């Protein structure tokens, strides 16, 4: 035994076995105790509960939901809500961040001052405080009868009312896909190597593809129109409440605004860092070649800055995605809130936490994988001189 | 002999060059100026000119005024800052906050940057805080954790998180760098799993789910479970920062130490860590800033920290309308702490880059 302990290999193996074994037994002991506790409360462990009806309402859902729906359907709703909120939050935060970041790198002192004060103020206030603030602001707005109205939009204490097209939900989704295709197709056509012709001669093809996709979108919308209704569904006051239009609930608006403002202040710093990373020599070279300021920006500084920004931006997006879990603070039914409610109502604690972890792992890993692909696709080829 | 240097531009000419060099520049300048003037005037008007400061007139005066109603702060500041802490004992809560701030300021001074001094300061500060808050000794009456609240609770969670999380992060970083594959892989798995989860879900697990999986004698108070959870989260992020700092230490350093016959602990504590911490300092300060902001999340698992006490301060009775003033006040408190910490981080970065130029 003594000689075995003096053998380095044996000692290392023993050390590792002890370490992993201790951690493993901790987890197993915890799981056993949990199972015992749950059995004492009459809860059977396992994933059977996923197919039982929930018996409670969900406050916000893009898909039809009623209390007789099973748990797995509610989890799906939660994930879709989280992705929906995340998509809105990320896009708006990116827009805000780009504008503020450009202001911070501008040569104009006043614009820089504005950008800097924005970042300093909003970065240093916790996100949850901003969420609470915007939520309180919206719920303290006047009731629907005295709403602030403009161009068919209405701001009330019950949320934001926006006019929508009178079309079927599926048709609307289809039209969105067609619109997306109208943007993506021409870009793909311009870059793909599958067509024999050189990219410069593809302008007519790109134009045709875009027009075709747009026509498809209009056609789908036309076919999907609800019969016997006006083209637009504009919110209007009827009795004490607003009828028609689409009601965006206050908690969703508050979350998007807060994520846009807070996330925007972080993204602004990333944008600034990206532009700072562009070598001086490259900008000077572009200037001395006689490019106009706009050309220097759009052909030299922006493409190079974008490549420096992307990896950090990907991290920030993953972070913002996790920040959507603040929905529970104001009652927005995101993935985390559905999990928390499930634990309250069904008691399936361990299973629900497992589903939560798996869900966030999948969301975060796919986001990271997507950005890795983009990063690889646009990376500068070959060895570049820096500086 | 004529002076060849161009004449110094006059003030008008200087202004023209800086802000109106081209039509685009002029547009940006005018837009920015307009925005600054508009926001500045609105804020000034709201916060000072049309604001109500006198609490003696009650909420009625605020309804008539167009500006902010600071009398809500004057009337309710003790709730916001101290929460449910017994009214006569709130001076203790205030003193405890001062102790924590003093401890933080002291540990920011480079003269105290040796492991022993930092440890001494933090142990002393935390002990003073704990004794003042909890009482039961030295003639102070006992106040249980369930009635702690407001700023003191926020600070306590932050300090305790750092105090547990920081040593833990070094341990995790060392384990992840271990040469034994199973140890480094398992640690890596734990770190990555914690990092991929939102903090709220970890706080929720520790506050509400963990009692299920722990034997009764190990459960402890909810406050301490949440602190352990938040420390684990902090440590997972900080471990990666420390590991990054360790990777920046040249290989030769460790090899030289080995050749001198130093033991593992000597190599880690005398050679590796001091250099790694220096590399990791800016990111570490940033992590402190982030985790200070994130202590605010404990409001979700039902703690009466500063945001929850703010909600309570305007949520009842006559001050129901005054949410903006209360949130502004809390935002200002956070801003003072976070902004000074991050300015300090920027100062450190400049200070350390002097040696590398």
Provide an overview of this structure:
Chain B: One of its GO terms (biological process) is amino acid transport. Chain B: It holds the Pfam family BPD_transp_1. Chain B: This is Inner membrane amino-acid ABC transporter permease protein YhdY. Chain B: Belongs to the binding-protein-dependent transport system permease family. HisMQ subfamily. Chain B: GO terms for molecular function: transmembrane transporter activity. The complex is a heterodimer of chains A (387) and B (357). With 387 residues, chain A is of the alpha+beta class. Among the domains of chain A are: 71-102 and 251-378, MetI-like fold; 164-233, no CATH class. Chain A contains 13 helices and eight strands. Chain A has helices at 2-6, 8-40, 71-105, 109-123, 127-139, 169-191, 203-223, 250-276, 280-288, 293-323, 327-330, 335-346, 349-378; strands spanning 148-150, 153-156, 159-162, 164-165, 232-233, 236-238, 241-243, 246-248. In chain A, the strands form three sheets. Chain A has a four-stranded antiparallel β-sheet. In chain A, strand 2 and strand 3 (159-162) form a beta hairpin. In chain A, helix 5 (127-139) crosses helix 8. Chain A is globular, with a radius of gyration of 27 Å. Chain A starts with a helix and ends in a 9-residue tail after the last helix. The model of chain A has no long low-confidence stretch (mean pLDDT 81). Chain B is mostly helical and 357 residues long. Chain B has a single domain, classed as MetI-like (MetI-like fold, Orthogonal Bundle), CATH 1.10.3720. In chain B, 72% of the residues lie in helices and 0% in strands. In chain B, helix 4 crosses helix 13 and helix 11 packs antiparallel against helix 12 (264-294). Chain B is globular. The mean pLDDT of chain B is 83.
């Amino acid at each position: 035994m003594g000689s075995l302990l003096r053998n380095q290999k044996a000692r290392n193996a023993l050390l590792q076995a002890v370490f992993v074994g201790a951690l493993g037994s901790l987890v197993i002991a915890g799981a056993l105790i949990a199972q015992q506790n749950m059995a004492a409360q009459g809860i059977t462990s396992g994933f059977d509960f996923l197919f039982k009806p929930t018996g409670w309402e969900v406050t916000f859902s893009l898909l039809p939901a009623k209390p007789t729906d099973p748990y797995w359907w509610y989890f799906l709703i939660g994930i879709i809500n989280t992705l929906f909120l995340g998509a809105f939050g990320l896009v708006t935060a990116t827009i805000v961040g780009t504008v503020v970041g450009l202001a911070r790198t501008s040569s104009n002192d006043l614009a820089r001052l504005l950008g800097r004060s924005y970042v300093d103020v909003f970065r240093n206030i916790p996100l949850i405080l901003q969420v609470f603030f915007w939520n309180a602001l919206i719920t303290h707005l006047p009731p629907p009868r005295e709403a602030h109205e403009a161009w068919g939009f209405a701001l009330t204490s019950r949320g934001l009312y926006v006019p929508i097209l009178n079309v079927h939900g599926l048709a609307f989704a289809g039209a969105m896909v067609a619109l997306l295709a109208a943007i993506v197709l021409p870009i793909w056509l311009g870059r793909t190597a599958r067509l024999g012709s050189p990219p410069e001669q593809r302008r007519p093809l790109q134009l045709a593809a875009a027009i075709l996709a747009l026509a498809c979108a209009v056609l789908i919308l036309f076919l999907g129109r609800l019969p016997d209704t006006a083209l637009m569904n504009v919110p209007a006051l009827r009795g004490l409440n607003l009828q028609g239009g689409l009601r965006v609930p206050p908690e969703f608006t508050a979350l998007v605004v807060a994520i846009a403002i807070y996330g925007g202040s972080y993204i602004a710093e990333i944008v600034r860092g990206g532009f700072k990373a562009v070598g001086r020599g490259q900008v000077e070279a572009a200037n001395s070649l006689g490019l106009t300021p706009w050309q220097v920006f759009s052909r030299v500084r922006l493409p190079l800055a974008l490549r420096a920004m992307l990896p950090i931006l990907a991290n920030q997006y993953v972070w913002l995605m996790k920040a959507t879990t603040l929905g529970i603070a104001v009652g927005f039914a995101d993935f985390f809130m559905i999990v928390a409610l499930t634990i309250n109502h069904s008691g399936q604690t361990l299973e629900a936490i497992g589903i939560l972890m798996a869900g966030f792992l999948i969301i975060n890993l796919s986001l990271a994988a997507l950005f890795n692909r983009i990063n690889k696709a646009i990376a500068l080829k070959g060895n570049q001189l820096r500086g | 002999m004529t002076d060849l240097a161009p004449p110094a531009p006059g003030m008008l000419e200087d202004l023209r060059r800086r802000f109106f060099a081209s039509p685009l520049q002029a547009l940006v300048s005018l837009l920015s100026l307009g925005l600054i003037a508009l926001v500045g005037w609105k804020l000034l008007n709201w916060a000072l000119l049309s604001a109500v400061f006198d609490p003696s007139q009650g909420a009625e005066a605020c309804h008539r005024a167009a500006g902010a109603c600071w009398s809500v702060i004057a009337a309710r500041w003790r709730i916001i800052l101290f929460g449910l802490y017994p009214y006569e004992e709130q001076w203790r809560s205030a003193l405890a906050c001062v102790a924590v701030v003093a401890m933080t300021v002291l540990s920011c001074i480079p003269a105290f940057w040796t492991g022993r001094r930092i440890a001494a300061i933090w142990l002393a500060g935390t002990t003073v805080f704990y004794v003042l808050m909890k009482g039961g000794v030295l003639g102070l009456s006992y106040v249980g954790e369930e009635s702690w609240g407001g700023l003191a609770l926020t600070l306590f969670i932050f300090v305790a998180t750092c105090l547990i999380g920081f040593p833990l992060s070094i341990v995790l970083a060392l384990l992840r760098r271990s040469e034994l594959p199973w140890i480094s892989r398992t640690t890596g798995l734990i770190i990555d799993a914690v990092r991929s989860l939102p903090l709220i879900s970890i706080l929720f697990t520790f506050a509400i789910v963990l009692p299920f999986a722990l034997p009764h004698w190990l459960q402890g108070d909810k406050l301490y479970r949440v602190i352990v959870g938040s420390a684990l989260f902090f440590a997972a992020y900080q471990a990666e920062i420390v590991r990054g700092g360790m990777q920046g230490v040249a290989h030769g350093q460790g090899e030289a130490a080995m050749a001198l016959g130093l033991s593992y602990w000597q190599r880690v504590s005398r050679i590796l860590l001091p250099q790694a911490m220096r590399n990791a300092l800016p990111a570490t300060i940033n992590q402190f800033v982030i985790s200070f902001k994130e202590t605010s999340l404990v409001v979700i698992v039902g703690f009466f920290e500063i945001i929850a006490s703010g909600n309570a301060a305007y949520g009842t009775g006559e001050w129901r309308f005054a949410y903006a003033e209360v949130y502004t006040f809390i935002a200002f408190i956070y801003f003072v702490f976070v902004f000074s910490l991050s300015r300090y981080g920027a100062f450190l970065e400049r200070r350390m880059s002097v040696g590398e130029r």
